[in-house]
Amino acid sequence: MKSYMARPLEVERKWHVIDAEGQTLGRLASEIARLLRGKNKAQYTPHVDTGDFVVVVNAEKVVVTGRKAEQKVYRRHTGYPGGLKETSYEQMLARKPTEILRKAVHGMMPRTRLARKQFKKLKIYAGPEHPHDAQNPQPYEVK
Fold it and tell me: Which of 1, 29, 82, 86 sits between 20 and 30 A of 93, alpha carbons compared?
């Protein structure tokens, strides 16, 4: 018996819209990463992009558990000596609410060329409106 390997031209891509209101950040991010990689499909092939497009609305209303709202810190480095910059969760939520979910999903994707390509299929919006009505995205219920 031969193993089935999906081909890039055979893959059928769906559009999913996920409402992030009231969802826990980590659990939502892991489900989104699973959809982007295509692991929810029977034809999943590790070296082929079999994932779907994901549109996330209400990203500013995602919740974190415990005391993460006060204690969570995002760090980045400018590349210069002494260039470590820190941003708290509250500051990030006020300035760029979509970046919180984007960083969480990015951390759950592999560090490969294929994953960078799959990550581009993620569209995140802070409010309830999105410009992807023409693609007819289907609502996806995160459990």
Answer: 82
